[in-house]
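Please produce the structure of this protein holding pyridoxal-5'-phosphate.
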Amino acid sequence: MKQQTEALHAGYEKDSQGTMAVPIYQTTAYEFRDVEHAANLFALRELGNIYTRLNNPTTDVFEKRFAALEEGEAALATSSGMAAIFYAIANAAEAGDNIVCASQLYGGTLTQAAHTLKRFGIEARFFDVHTPDAVEKLVDEKTKVIFFETLTNPSIDVADIDAIVAIADRHGIVTVVDNTVATPILCQPLKHGVDVVVHSASKYTTGQGLAIGGILVERKGLRDKLKANPRYPQFNEPDESYHGLVYLDVPLPPYTLRARLSLLRDLGAVVSPFNSWLFIQGIETLPIRMPVHSGNAQKVAEFLAGHPRVVKVNYPGLPNDPNHAMAMKYFKDGMCSGLLSFEVADFETARQVVDRTTIFSLVVNIGDSKSIITHPASTTHQQLSDEEMEACGVKPGLIRLSIGLEDADDLIADLKQALEG
Ligand SMILES: *Cc1c(COP(=O)(O)O)cnc(C)c1O
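Below is the modeled complex.
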């Protein structure tokens, strides 16, 4: 099936009422038929609903539909993108291990990796996403995850997915990729051999800035990479916390299975059924929206590139952008999503431009239907040290735009008056 059809139908079979819209199963728990049924569900001898922290029929549709768009085998929804990233990493790594990450990352991911995971005994080692060969020198027998973003936020770089995956595969290491900005409409990392894709559903998936959520999607066949792999005993050996269950002995996608039965069970960052329902509504139009976001952003980028007060524009759709070739290689029909950034002279000029715009809202979000303007140095990246900021490409005069679905001419006129005012 094509993505637009999947976006409308995948994962939902109408209930006995013939309900066209996916119902919101607003419930905490589910009745078992009898004690044996309950015991079978807990022992995974039978699959079914137990408690909404573990599964929910509305969330199940969201997970199946998103997995279909990514062409993955299974998905696990979480209460936020940050939780999805944490689960994707914590599923593979524990105290004493390390992960290798691109340094061009979302601010929250960078602090999670560099500071919070460190407190849990997991070391993060960083490489520049433009030099994937550097990964080779950073990995050792304790490396459990290689993490990067397909289209980085906010530095707007494009990763060479094939090059990084080749190194990971050579060492039998799990790759986890954040595909939030590109979305599965522009790029399907699992098709390039990436093992696990994570998303903040709070961005293009909801599409209208309605809810916080996240999701992780597992590649078909990831089981073969984990099986008998000495890096990942947690999938091959009995889990004491689950009556000695060996995850790879269960005929279900192992990465999401363990994330659900162990991490979601014990850490509990579960998405609400209502938010899953909002994400399902968003997904219905995702394949239609992404070309509009991308087309508008292309026009805005071209305008900014020709403006004398703009020092630099970062948008992979511009032919002279250093990421152009990678974007043309990995993104569908040359679409580069709605995120772009540009530099003006300094912090003060950036402040003035941001404050003068009228259609753009000053909001720390991306992927909304309404256009957004942000000044990373004073907001999303303020907690980082100067070195960390420099490493992820954030300059004081950098302005980030998330281009919405408005008419591009109106957006250009607004930026023109803000730059020239
Ligand atoms: C927003 C974002 C996140 C974090 O997601 P939340 O849903 O806000 O927790 C992670 N990665 C990227 C690329 C993001 O843009």
